[in-house]
Specification:
- It is a single chain.
- The chain is mainly α and 194 residues long.
- It contains 7 helices and 2 strands.
- It has a two-stranded antiparallel ribbon.
- β1 and β2 (123-127) form a beta hairpin.
Length: 194
């Protein structure tokens, strides 16, 4: 499901007009925010279309990638399995959601649950040979699509983009979920408009 439910983004002039009625609306911040959401939606669409060819969702792919990355860092695919709680933390989903994802992946024989090697009261999740084979089929094209999508940006632009996105992610992490509204901020000076 897209994050932004607008087909066409509002022009800057429309945002400027709206800011007269809503003084807290910062036109340039809103413009950047809407473009960020649209770009995220489009990137998600490109990846989702590829994963759909392999009959796998983004969530399931995320779990497989977390397991694959963990296994390959450990040096042995069976050496350091993860618990469902660790997988939930790494992928940013709730534990209940992770249970559903692991159930689905286990039914498809892409992962298996086993008693945890250090604590028999817990279960761990491991990639199966079929799960590893699926990732080996998906990943080359997945990485080609990432490179294609970022192709219009040169190396310097990519580094700047990552730095700017990191600043936005840092700010998002500062806003506690239990507050009704974020603190007031000062507006950036407007850039020259088209």
């Amino acid at each position: 499901m897209p994050l932004l439910m607008l087909k066409d983004l509002p022009r800057y002039e429309c945002l400027l007009e709206a800011s007269r009625e809503f003084p807290d609306l910062d036109p340039s911040a809103t413009e950047v925010f809407l473009h960020l959401l649209r770009a995220g939606d489009e990137a998600f669409r490109v990846v989702e279309a590829h994963l759909a060819q392999h009959d796998i969702s983004q969530g399931r792919f995320g779990v497989l990638m977390a397991l694959w990355g963990n296994c390959h860092r450990a040096g042995n695919p069976r050496e350091k399995p993860l618990t469902p709680a660790e997988l939930a933390d790494r992928t940013g989903v709730t534990r209940a959601t992770m249970t559903g994802l692991v159930d689905t992946l286990e039914r498809a024989d892409l992962v298996t649950r086993k008693p945890h090697p250090e604590d028999r009261r817990m279960m761990s999740v491991c990639l199966t040979a079929r799960g590893e084979a699926l990732l080996e089929r998906i990943m080359p094209e997945h990485f080609r699509r990432m490179a294609w999508l970022m192709g219009p940006l040169n190396e310097g632009e990519r580094k700047t983009f990552v730095r700017l996105l990191a600043k936005v992610m840092q700010r998002a992490s500062e806003n506690p979920a239990n507050t009704d509204s974020p603190p007031k901020t000062t507006r950036a000076a407007p850039a020259g408009r088209r």
